[in-house]
Amino acid sequence: MIGRGLERIGRLLLLMGLIPLSTAPAAMASEPILIAHRGASGERPEHTLASYERAIDQGADYVEPDLVLTKDGVLVARHENEISGTTDVADHPAFADRKTTKKIDGVEMAGWFTEDFTLAELRTLHARERLPDLRPANRRFNDLYQIPTFEEILKLVRAKEAETGRRIGLYPETKHPGYFAKIGLPHQAALLDLLGRYGYQSEADPVFIQSFEVGNLKALRAATRLRLIQLVDADGGPADLPGTTYADMLTVQGLSDIAAYADGIGPSAAQIIAPEGPTALVGRAHDAGLQVHVWTLRMENSFLPPQYQRADDPQGRGDFAAWVRAIVAAGVDGLFTDFPGQAKAALEPAR
Predict the structure, then answer these.
(1) Over the Cα atoms of the chain, what is R_g?
(2) Cα gap 284→177, rounded to integer Å
(3) CA terminus-to-terminus distance, the chain
(4) Which positions make up the signal peptide (predicted)?
(5) Would the pTM of this model clear 0.85, i.e. be above it?
(6) Overall number of domains in the chain
(7) Residue 308 maps to which CATH number?
(8) pLDDT in tens, 36-50
(9) SS3 of 173, please?
């Protein structure tokens, strides 16, 4: 714990300009890690190879694919297993009869679901911008890209490593793992098999596996030494633990319990900096030996705290750089962002 505390102090001194970047230890200078949330999803439709490649080209340390499964058990990258908002599936008459309503983790959803399609069928679809009104420029890329498999993302990362000469991390999220396990499509074996085949097997490898559920992470901990992150939110609780809230999990005892199976937590930005100022969560998590990777930093005013919004910006964007620096000053070890290029520019003095 002493080492962790010294590292936090050192990073704060670095941010204040009191330690020259050239003399900072490598571990300190490389923090916080920059995680491209669904790729560079502020500039390309999310979860496409184009989005991941742009994020890598902009200097992201990790790319984050959300993983769901197809009917034939293939891991593919989508934010949700319901795909009407991120593909052109509604424009395919052949799939009209696949539209249905399901209850996923207690929430009723209507649309088309990946588990009702084989990979070959999904290959006939094309990706579209999920937030077209907020990100109209991304609509020009609609229908250009397919839904990528996790293996294709692994191949892209390997190819970009060969091109750039640097390691590029992977930060997959298992989406609705309890639901998928109940329908006979568990994430674990397919995920670990693919990662193992591409050489990712230990805590030294640049991989974090994340989940909002608990049982999934505990099962993974029993099967792998790859690093695990327990995602948490300001409200609600894990879908697989009714009666348990994320607030319960973020007490001193709760964080100690998380540390028994995970390497860190992934809280929302609002849990790190509340309207009245920084919270004590980062310190409590570090005291428990846990890293803190905060989600999700975006440029648009609608996602920013009031003090960082700009009413006169024609693109509806705020003071993103100041928001990034405020989050970093709170002592986090990593941050998720839809805009890795702009976040990297904001972080440059501190890296």
Answers:
(1) 20
(2) 28
(3) 23
(4) none
(5) yes
(6) 1
(7) 3.20.20.190
(8) 999 999 999 999 999
(9) strand
